[in-house]
Amino acid sequence: MLRFILRKLLNKKWLILCILIGNVLLVGIACCNPMYTRAALQKMLTRNLDAALQANNRYPCMEIITAKLSDTRLSKYGSSYFENYHSVPEAVKKLYGMEPMDIVTLYATSNAQDAKFETQRATEESSSFELKLAALSNLENNIEIISGKMYSDQPDSEGVIDVIVNETVYLSKDMVVGEIVQMKNYTNVKDEKVRIRIVGVFRAKDTQSSYWVKEPLRYDKEFFMAPAIFEEQFMSDTKISGNITVSWYTQFDYADIDIDQVDKMLEVHEKLNGDIVGTDQLYIPQSTYQKVFLEFKDSSGRISTTMWILQVPILVLLAVFVFMVSNQVISIEAGEIAMLKSRGVSRMQLIGTYFIQSVILAVIALIFGIPLGYVLCHVFGSTNAFLEFVGRHALQVRITGTALVYAFTAAFAGILIMTLPVLKFARYSIVEQKANKRKSKNPMWQRMFLDFALLAIASYGFYNFNSQKDSLIQKVADGAALDPMLFLSASLFILSCAICFLRVIPMLSYLIFMIGRKLWRPAFYASFLQITRDSRKQSFITVFLVLTIALGIFNANIARTVNENEEIRTKYDNGTTVILEEKWLNNEDSYGKGRADKLFYSEPDYNKYAELRDSNKDKIAGMTRVLVDKNVSFSTGIGTYNSCLLMAIHTKEFGNTAWMPEGYSADHWYNALNALAVQPDGAIISSNFALANELAVGDTFSINRFNFMGENTGRMSLTVSAIVDYWPGYENKTTVKTDDGKESLEERFLVVTSLENLSREYEAVPYQVWMNIKGDSGFLYDWIEENKVRLASMTDTVADLQGIKNDPYFQITNGMLTITFIVVILLCAIGFLIYWITSIRSRELIFGIYRAMGMSMRELITMLINEHMFGSVLPIVFGAAVGILASKMFVPLIEIAYSPTVQTLPVRTFSSDADMIRIGVVVAAMLIFCITAISVLLSKIKINQALKLGED
Amino acid sequence: MSEILKTENVKRSFPVAGGTFWALKGIDITVPESSLTILKGRSGSGKTTLLNIMGALDPPTSGKVVFDGEDISKAGDGGREKIRRKKIGYIFQSVALIPVMSAYENVEYALRLANYKGNYKERVMECLKMVGLSKRASHMPQELSGGEQQRVAIARAIAHKPKIIFADEPTGALDVEMSIQVMKVLKRLNAEQRTNVIIITHNPVIAEMAHKVITIKNGMIAEERINENPKSVEMIEW
Fold this sequence. Notes:
The complex is a heterodimer of chains A (952) and B (238). Chain A has 4 domains: 1-58 and 300-435, no CATH class; 59-295, no CATH class; 505-574 and 799-952, no CATH class; 584-789, no CATH class. Chain A contains 32 helices and 26 strands. In chain A, strands 1, 2, 3, 4, 5, 6, 7, 8, 9, 10 and 11 form an 11-stranded mixed β-sheet that branches. Chain A has a 6-stranded mixed beta barrel with strand order 17-18-24-19-21-20, surrounded by 5 helices. The longest helix of chain A has 44 residues, at 13-56. Chain B is of the alpha/beta class. Chain B contains 7 helices and 10 strands. In chain B, helix 6 links the parallel strand 7 (164-168) and strand 8. The radius of gyration of chain B is 18 Å and the shape is globular.
């Protein structure tokens, strides 16, 4: 039996190879879903934790239990949640069930205590100071003593306790090693005065070590003693000296946190929180990861949904492909099946044979598919944009249990799909099969108009989504992912167009045929009849071609649109490539405290920028000063508006430096700049401001500016010289939190005026330096470092754009769409070749007849090319049209899921000529290869052999 | 008696592993005008190779084939195609109708290929009538029985009024009933239209109907027999 099946498989090795490719891809793509989602999420989690570390300068994965101990609290709360405070670290560790990287215990007096050096100082004031008595567990292993020695574990005979301090404390207090400090009021549990001796100065061995839950130099009041002494001296079971805070920092290695642990850790923390707050107020649990984890959970849902939605079309397409080729194989074997059936082989036996065959293929598919899925994950990880790859730090991809479940499910689905066609054929014996051949009715779905029904549903879906655009935007703003129904509607639209097209082809070719019925040369005559009368055989490849081409274009356009809009948005929102804002010396501090009468800002030297520009003319295309003021109100006859945006510019330089995408407004923005340049008190205003206040060019309005304290710094009158919809760096809406906590959008007004004009009326305040940098901005970072430029802020568009490319949401989208596109083209080429080659093989006899009747080789090929025109070229052209149409309809809606809430520039659909050329080249290569293959195949057909003339 | 076809020392070789195989080793045949000729021989005797050469499907390796006064052994692919189109009709063992064309269209297609100058419809119907299928003109091949299909093939083979018809085992795939039908048509064609017919067959009874029976053996003519009084279809016991 097995040998029979294997021989059967080898017999049709090419077709079987195609089925196998389909199955391997099916398994590979299915199992890369969980693997990639997992890897991407893992990367995102680690990155988010990393970002939290950078932002807060402390390890992001800590459970901190703090106990604020005092006599009164002890008596008030009595027994505690933990058996006693010694058991806290163990208990926390046990609850988490994870090995912590470090558990650090910090004991310290809650407040700084008065102390004084016993050694005489010049003044009484200089010998008195405040300190905190403290102890850190395991300190000895994490520091080095740079002066003096380590503390001892025992007070000396006089009861003086050894302490050590860090360099900051040591230097600031002007102390000497060996000096004794007396606590003024603080006593130990035995009510004895506390005396400490500074025996050493320490420095952290490794400031980056996880041990330093707080930066080592920030212990600027702490005098450290041995923890055992601290406990013995200041804490007993019944008595506490003053107020003491003990903190247990349980640290987990954030780089090791697995996404599976997120839920569990959150749960443990919740439980700790609930239990402790419920039973005992002595302890306060606090986690450093909670915020990061909760945010992560939000976006992880969005990412896995997106992955699914993007993946379904390709899985369906692969399933269709496998079905198509299996059907082809089985229809070739139809005669054999019918013969076996007639000889008494039962239907179940037949199905069993094919089932085993499918299982063999599925097993092979699993063997190759799972590693393929693994490789695909890495490919996804290295997509930079659509069809663009970079060598990026590899994702940590693991073959997980879930991935195996997906792989096996896909393989099982493959088995079903492969066995399905045989059910149809196994029903008939040879007689029935021949009888069946004679019936040729239109297929069921055509008679029931299912194609039109599907098209109607898809169109309704589009209409529905399109009319509810606003609610779609709101949903995305609330954190929803791409709506699966939207994507489904788009796929359904493409599919229904493809099957509607099936009705059209025979009609169209019949029409052309009838027009020239008498005129057609024999080759065309025969091919037209072939197309009109045998269109059912072609239907699958027709649908498949339309589907693949349309889906390829559609996906390419989604990817391009999402990427391009995001890029344009980022560049537009920033305004130009690099924006620097230096820290200006100022007296905000003393002015705020009322110690200065006048607020002043001192402008740093701008010349250095001019020099930078002059020495880097090839890299800096433009540079200008831009004053961006958000503390402005605009007043018109109609109203006064706060939180508006004022920009003061140098028109010519701004024109060279700022970036505006072309084609969004009818009037070029340079015209507005020119209008402003010739009007000293002029202003360019945003159209929403103009609209709300019925302002036209020539009208006047006034602005009021405010300082950081909210005090009015002066009023100025301006005349409208131009009205614009968009402006570099200007978002026309802003989100505000409403009372019910939801975000809503509010109009934001813009006024642009000349910097020169503004400087005449107001004191100088910090401005930004805008630079239009061509290519890499690396030299700028070096320059900033070399010149020790103190920056208040820096915007680097190149880095922002890179950030988008690293965003898992965009990466998944680009990766998935790229893979889909490649697979689509691959399937298209394979499907096409299989169809034509098998179709020609099955028609060898007919070709022999044509040849015997005197038809030349050239005519035969002409005939096939004509068939190609209808069977392939027409569907390809139609597929391209459907793809473009579907893009126009659905891509703007899909783009919503990728847009931020505030979207100033209208979303545009982008398509790349390069993609179309790619599709075109592949398709053309496919056609040429196919026609060549067919010609070779045809020339090999020996007429006499084809016709089985005689038995020589 | 003039002749329609004549071969002179026709040889044909095929390259085989380790040398050359001579399928035909020098054949001299004369086919008289208006005759029905039978080619007999075992499998591998070379009769189909001979038929291919006489029927302008294949050129001989050496020798001469004169068909209708023209030496076709020197004609190229194009020349042979033209001869096949205009002057030759084929009937094959396997049912060889074009499946997407009706009986009428199958016959008409031969006229199109031969660029027939007369009225297509009249000629097609005439041919179909000759094979007794004028009522089934609009049927598609799969709606016809094997014998009917073969008769349409005959109608197609004669439609463009070829000088000669080659039939390779025309009854090979048919049962007796249908074989009789087919042979009747061929015999009548020969008798009434005076069309030349060359048939390859294994069936000894068919040979009794021929004017001339040529037996091929090992690429050479083993026997050439003239039948002065060929039997009619009705006279034969199948």
